[in-house]
Amino acid sequence: MQFSQFELAAIAIAIDDEVLEKRSETTKRRWGVHPTWRKREAEGEFALLYKELIDDESKFYGYFRMSKECFTFLLEKVKPDLTKKITRFQKPISPIEQLAVCIRFLATGDSFKTISYSFRLGHSTVTEIVHSTCRSIVKRFKKDVIPEPTEEMWRKIAEDFEKLRGFPHCIGALDGKHFVIEAPANSGSIYFNYKHTFSIVLLALVDACYKFIAVDVGAYGRNSDGGIFAQCNLGKRLENGTLHVPIGKNLPGSSTFAPYVIVGDEAFPLKTYLMRPYPGHQATGDANKTNFNHRLSLARRLVENAFGILTQRFRIFQRRMKLAPENVDYIILSTCVLHNFLCEQKDYTGLISHSAQNAQPHLLNPLSVQPGRPANDAFAVRETFKEYLASTAGRNFIGQQYQE
Q: Where is the DDE Tnp4 domain (predicted)?
């Protein structure tokens, strides 16, 4: 039997319609909540484990990377944002379980799918919980734990650097940290860095107690630390003098006037308010310059230790993050906020000493060195600190204030 072209076309259309109908039947959602997830309140990780953890402080800390008191205080702050209305269709997930899911995700670095199976929650539910909780943490805590510094706060930071780190008139250690991400779609090379990975950069200013004074999150991985600093609010406000930094004074035990400064590595420009080490070829054979570089390095490595504490506590940063850049920004910012909050609560047992012991020299890519010649005033300020640290007054100051 032969068919006309018209009849063949009609048969083909009928077959396609039948295939599409069968496909839609097989892919149709069979339930609102998967039967596995319905057992969450009886067999989920939170239901089974949390009630046992609250009776054992060490196990609680090992699971959440924070003490029970800090977790409870955190819950009270974010609870209004995480509370959902009860409907006749289903019971909402409690704020305490949402916070547990988020903190566990940050603390372990497990994937959303792994957290989904262990807590018996849908993949999309876990994703939404983590992102909404991180935003709530930033909203509720950032202004309190990373406030804009006042003159009094700057002076207190400088006193801590003098007493604890042996560098006078220092108001912060500055550096950038690359957090590895999966290459965003259609992003080209803007996130591609000199380490041949894709990343988002956290630029941070840290005090003598490992707390973040100011942070800038979200810069593209291809940008240098110096370039990011020049474009961020911190760099701009330091440059135009609107960050409430107090006027300098005489260095301890001397009549030598010097401004308050921050310390950084060779990636940053030399400014009257930003000290960086002498280049290696200049310091070689010059004891005073070598001494200055050593003292500056001891103060500057605090920011690297702070990054080490951050990545130890929140192990999500020890793997490549498969998230949209805007979500990564909030995750990084929320962990910085949590870091300061936990430092204020003295909740860093075992983290600081381990980080300091394992601190490694920061190796710079030659292309990341900030171009351009500093102004003569910046050279003069660095010379002032160099001469002071090599003087009798400077050596006495270090001997009295700093114990290595």
A: 174-340
